[in-house]
Amino acid sequence: MRQDEEQGLAGDETRQERREQRKRRKREKMLQHGKSLFRVYKDAVLKRLRKKEDKMAKRHNEGAGNFYHHNPRVPTIVTAHAEGRDNAMAASWHASISMRPPLIGVSISPKRFTYQLILESGEFGINFLPAEKAELIAALGGSKGSEVDKFQKFGIKKVKPLKTSVPILEDAYAAYECKVIDHRTYGDHEWVVGEILVTHFDEGVFTDEEILDLERVAPSLYLGADFYVTAAKDSLRLLDRKAYGKG
Known about the structure:
- This protein is α+β, with helices and mostly antiparallel strands and 247 residues long.
- The protein contains five helices and eleven strands.
- It has a seven-stranded antiparallel sheet with strand order 2-1-5-8-9-4-3.
- The model has no long low-confidence stretch (mean pLDDT 88).
């Protein structure tokens, strides 16, 4: 009987040892799993930090890349009329050149139908649309005037020009009628310079100084790669250049 008891006790101890071994193995396994998860998390954090540092670091590319670094820019709708045909195209490469006389330049690919109409007529229009018309800007930029009447296709309304035959868009908060005074080839584009003969604008969306009132209209801004944004009205600041120039 005593021998049976001893054997039973020995069996209990063996089972207890096995249970302890299983517990140890389980703890070791959990510990290893925890270490693996920590390594994965650590690697992810380090990768994110390195990515953030890479974004902050200054880089240098040969040439201009996608040529979006100087954006955002205010996109325009360039319009033209010749031989009974109207057309409109989107263009973001434009610049003011002179106050007296008032000159503006726009960069246009010679492949564009609008460019051909401008050469034939010697005139063009520059139209500025609000942010809620960004879809129209994209549509005009993504269609060909040589294949379709854009004004009919997109239901564009016009107002009568005063000194030219160029279409002026009714939805534009500002527009210029221009007479071509020069055009030159630069690279793969033509730089077309026009004298502004007439300025059309919605009086209610401009201040007394003829500055766009962001409380009344949100201008379209083009970031590049078909992305559009607008200006935040609460970001407006008046910075007196003369005061700041004194240091």
